[in-house]
Specification:
The structure is a single chain. The chain is of the alpha/beta class. The protein has one domain (about 5-189): Rossmann fold (3-Layer(aba) Sandwich). The protein has seven helices and ten strands. It has helices spanning about 5-15, 40-45, 45-60, 75-90, 135-145, 160-165, 180-189, and strands spanning about 20, 25, 35, 35-40, 70, 95-100, 110-115, 120-130, 150-155, 175-180. Strands 7-6-5-8-9-10 form a six-stranded mixed sheet, with helices on both faces. The chain has a two-stranded antiparallel sheet with strand order 1-4. Helix 5 links the parallel strand 8 (about 120-130) and strand 9. The two termini are about 25 Å apart. The relative contact order is 0.16.
């Protein structure tokens, strides 16, 4: 992983996405309370964030014969678009897709939307891994659509057991950053 881009990503996550309180005031999707919260959308929707994240993830997956990247909407959407855009800039054809939490109730009633078809080799993307539940739902939905899931790439791993759960469903999970790295950087700032 490019050390300079990783440093820039950590700084951007700290500035835009990482919130800390001495008391556990942040309610997580799991229902648990925490003293820190990571709202990656502030970073993933920024111009710099898209450039950095797209480049870092593309460096990780470009040599894997991947055809598309995506994950659960909304968290994975800007990440997938950033990777696809970075790929095009390097002459690679990597599409993006979104996975709805539930299949659409009208039209084609699809759960997976985007430029993918059964048999495509894909990576599932995630903004923050905590328990792994949403990532596992995305993996299962992709497989129901006939996609071959090569692995998972997460922006941040909260290091709370999600990694271990996800690895029960796929062969690889790579995280660009961990919660302990962000906490250490926050203390140093």
């Amino acid at each position: 992983m490019d050390a300079e881009l990783k440093r820039k990503l950590t700084a951007l996550l700290l500035a835009k996405s990482f919130r800390y309180n001495p008391e556990p005031v942040f309610k997580l999707a799991s229902g648990r309370m925490s003293n820190y919260y990571i709202d990656c959308r502030k970073t993933t929707h920024s111009c710099a964030g898209k450039h950095i994240i797209g480049s870092l993830i593309l460096d990780l997956i470009a040599d894997t014969d991947v055809q598309a990247v995506g994950g659960l909407t909304m968290g994975a959407d800007p990440i997938a678009c950033a990777v696809s855009h970075a790929a095009y800039g390097r002459g690679l054809d990597i599409a993006s897709f979104s996975i709805r939490k539930e299949p659409k109730g009208h039209g084609l009633q699809q759960q997976v939307e985007g430029d993918v078809k059964a048999g495509d080799r894909v990576y599932i993307l995630e903004d923050v891994v905590t328990t792994g539940g949403s990532t596992i739902k995305a993996i299962e939905a992709a497989r129901r659509e006939g996609l071959e899931v090569l692995g998972v790439v997460a922006l941040v791993d909260r290091e709370e057991g999600g990694r271990e759960e996800i690895l029960k469903h796929v062969g690889s999970l790579t995280s660009l950053c961990t919660a302990s790295e962000l906490q250490k950087a926050c203390r140093a700032a």
